[in-house]
């Protein structure tokens, strides 16, 4: 809350460096979506959520975050590490044998900050709803945040959960869809159109708002607005417009960088565009 | 042979309902979820007592498993309830990722397992669930045999930390285990000691095994009957000890012969001391409509089938 926008932007720049360096380091992983969602995750962990990096699975009295599109693990790991959950040196182990930083996030290796495995898409909204119900039963009024890919909305379970949350007035839940319009096989409009997401979630009974996802000031303002909309009987859905690859010019504007690692020259080109604000791992 | 009698018949699912209510009274963190089958799962007593601790999810089993996984964060102990088919095959990936791999303390409670679901037919009669669930690392798999054992198992899993699959059924069956039993997860129950053949049974086949044991006794064959209620972790010691004595084994289960209790027992024997084994199980097929009794007879899941298998395996042992 005390950090200003410029500081958050500098953190985001470092996180983007971490993302491309991690993916380059193992020549595998998903840089595009990670870069697009960097501003959202930095805002959550450095300005919005009340959370404790000493990490307790139950997270009582804390705000919780669930990453449903687990393939953007690089940005999740970087933000967790940079906010104190584990040493930044561990980022060098991403996707390598015996690492806690598995290709997709998991609780299995005991990495602090991760509360559920994700990777097989469509499951995180249900889990977040469960965690929100758990908080209600415990008399804990903190919030539960989520992030989903837009392609992920093609999974049916998302709509089971989307129907459940408004019916049960799960109103301390703030969900966010990364609307970058891209998925592995191409633009979502070509692969399987999502249609009017605002109208769809509104019809399901959500409080829907739109937010620019690659403008830190807009993200922080949008998240404050989402919080002001919570607690009023409806779950809140943020449709976040982002650009896949945001922050690295040659990775933007296409689905090409969904799951491709940069080579040495491309890494250098990317790093030249990103300030090393906090020191590389 | 130890004599077993009964004065009452009840469905195992009612044992679950009674156990769930009791578990709810003992632990305020116990919560229940159901996918539009409250009556079938006998959850109404729990709901009446603890309405705020019940979650109706509608016909949306995948969402139910995910919500259950989330409820564990914050310390709740969720029990999900639906038919065995919709508890496993329909939601395998949700259980795999959000429950088993994530090591969440979810109790997946499944009724109407196997052929004894009856008239609804093969769409609802899952015979592959034990196999699917036992293949998941960290999953405990339990298939109790009567009302009392199901109630005791329900109370036991509420105290156990970790994911559990609890499988029970629809028909009324004899109550022959004690009401005051202590259910120990992973510990076989010696039903009756014998010397000529080991019969290892689970679920509804345990009563059939007892009937078979009496028939074999009348033929001069001494059967040792063991109830394996916990398919995983398996009580290997009890199996090996018995087969060391008898030298042959019959396994009996209301499940496909592929992937069930029989295969688990065979693996233990192969690794330690191979012995002839006969399976009383469904022979790699789907079920069909009919009364439970008709189906158990047609698919050879009853006392006569166990007797026949025992005779055959004794002959093979020589």
TrEMBL record, chain A:
<keyword id="KW-0786">Thiamine pyrophosphate</keyword>
<dbReference type="Pfam" id="PF00456">
    <property type="entry name" value="Transketolase_N"/>
</dbReference>
<protein>
    <submittedName>
        <fullName>Transketolase</fullName>
    </submittedName>
</protein>
<dbReference type="InterPro" id="IPR005474">
    <property type="entry name" value="Transketolase_N"/>
</dbReference>
<dbReference type="InterPro" id="IPR029061">
    <property type="entry name" value="THDP-binding"/>
</dbReference>
<comment type="similarity">
    <text>Belongs to the transketolase family.</text>
</comment>
<feature type="domain" description="Transketolase N-terminal">
    <location>
        <begin position="9"/>
        <end position="271"/>
    </location>
</feature>
Automatic annotation (TrEMBL), chain B:
<dbReference type="InterPro" id="IPR051157">
    <property type="entry name" value="PDH/Transketolase"/>
</dbReference>
<dbReference type="InterPro" id="IPR033248">
    <property type="entry name" value="Transketolase_C"/>
</dbReference>
<dbReference type="InterPro" id="IPR005475">
    <property type="entry name" value="Transketolase-like_Pyr-bd"/>
</dbReference>
<feature type="domain" description="Transketolase-like pyrimidine-binding">
    <location>
        <begin position="10"/>
        <end position="175"/>
    </location>
</feature>
<keyword id="KW-0786">Thiamine pyrophosphate</keyword>
<dbReference type="Pfam" id="PF02780">
    <property type="entry name" value="Transketolase_C"/>
</dbReference>
<dbReference type="InterPro" id="IPR029061">
    <property type="entry name" value="THDP-binding"/>
</dbReference>
<comment type="similarity">
    <text>Belongs to the transketolase family.</text>
</comment>
<dbReference type="Pfam" id="PF02779">
    <property type="entry name" value="Transket_pyr"/>
</dbReference>
<dbReference type="InterPro" id="IPR009014">
    <property type="entry name" value="Transketo_C/PFOR_II"/>
</dbReference>
<protein>
    <submittedName>
        <fullName>Transketolase</fullName>
    </submittedName>
</protein>
């Amino acid at each position: 809350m005390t950090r200003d926008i410029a500081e958050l932007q500098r953190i985001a720049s470092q996180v983007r460096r971490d993302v491309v360096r991690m993916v380059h380091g193992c020549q595998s992983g998903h840089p595009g979506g990670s870069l697009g969602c960097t501003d959202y995750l930095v805002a959550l962990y450095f300005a919005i959520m009340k959370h404790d990096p000493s990490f307790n699975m139950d997270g009582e009295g804390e705000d919780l975050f669930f990453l449903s599109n687990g393939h953007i693990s690089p940005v999740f790991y970087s933000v967790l590490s940079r906010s104190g959950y584990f040493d930044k040196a561990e980022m060098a182990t991403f996707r390598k044998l015996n690492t806690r930083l598995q290709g997709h996030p998991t609780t299995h290796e005991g990495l602090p900050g991760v509360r559920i495995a994700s990777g097989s898409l469509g499951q995180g909204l249900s889990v977040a709803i469960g965690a929100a119900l758990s908080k209600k039963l415990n008399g804990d009024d903190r919030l539960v945040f989520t992030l989903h890919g837009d392609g992920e909305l093609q999974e049916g379970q998302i709509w089971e959960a989307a129907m459940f949350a408004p019916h049960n007035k799960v109103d301390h839940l703030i969900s966010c869809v990364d609307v970058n319009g891209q998925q592995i096989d191409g633009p979502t409009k070509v692969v399987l159109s999502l249609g009017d997401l605002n109208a769809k979630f509104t019809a399901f009974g959500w409080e829907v708002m739109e937010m620019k996802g690659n403008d830190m000031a807009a993200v922080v303002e949008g998240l404050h607005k989402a919080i002001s909309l919570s607690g009023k009987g409806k779950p809140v859905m943020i449709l976040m417009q982002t650009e896949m690859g945001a922050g690295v010019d040659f990775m933007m504007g296409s689905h090409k960088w969904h799951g491709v690692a940069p080579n040495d020259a491309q890494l250098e080109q990317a790093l030249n565009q990103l300030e090393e604000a906090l020191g590389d791992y | 042979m130890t004599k077993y009698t009964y004065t009452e018949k009840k469905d195992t699912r009612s044992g679950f309902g009674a156990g769930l209510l009791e578990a709810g009274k003992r632990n305020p963190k116990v919560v229940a979820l159901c996918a539009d089958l409250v009556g079938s799962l006998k959850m109404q007593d729990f709901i009446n007592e603890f309405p705020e601790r019940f979650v109706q999810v509608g016909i949306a089993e995948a969402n139910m498993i995910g919500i259950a996984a989330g409820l564990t964060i914050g310390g709740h102990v969720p029990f999900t309830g639906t038919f065995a088919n919709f508890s496993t095959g329909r939601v395998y990936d949700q259980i795999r990722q959000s429950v088993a791999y994530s090591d969440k303390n979810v109790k997946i409670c499944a009724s109407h397992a196997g052929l004894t679901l009856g008239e609804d037919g093969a769409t609802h009669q899952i015979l592959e669930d034990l196999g699917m669930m036992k293949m998941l690392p960290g999953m405990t798999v339990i298939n109790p045999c009567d009302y009392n054992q199901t109630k005791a198992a329900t109370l036991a899993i509420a105290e156990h930390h970790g994911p559990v699959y609890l499988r029970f059924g629809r028909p009324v069956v004899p109550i022959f285990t004690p009401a005051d039993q202590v259910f120990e997860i992973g510990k076989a129950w010696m039903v009756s000691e014998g010397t000529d053949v080991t019969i290892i049974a689970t679920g509804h086949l345990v009563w059939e095994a007892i009937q078979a044991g009496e028939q074999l006794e009348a033929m001069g064959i001494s059967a040792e009957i063991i109830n394996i209620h916990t398919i995983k972790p398996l009580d290997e010691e009890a199996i090996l000890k018995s087969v060391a004595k008898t030298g042959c084994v019959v396994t009996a289960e209301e499940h496909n012969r592929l992937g069930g209790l029989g295969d688990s027992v065979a693996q233990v024997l192969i690794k330690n001391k191979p012995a002839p084994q006969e399976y009383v199980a469904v022979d790699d097929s789907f079920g069909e409509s009919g009364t439970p009794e008709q189906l158990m007879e047609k698919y050879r899941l009853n006392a006569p089938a166990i007797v026949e298998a025992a005779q055959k395996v004794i002959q093979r042992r020589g």
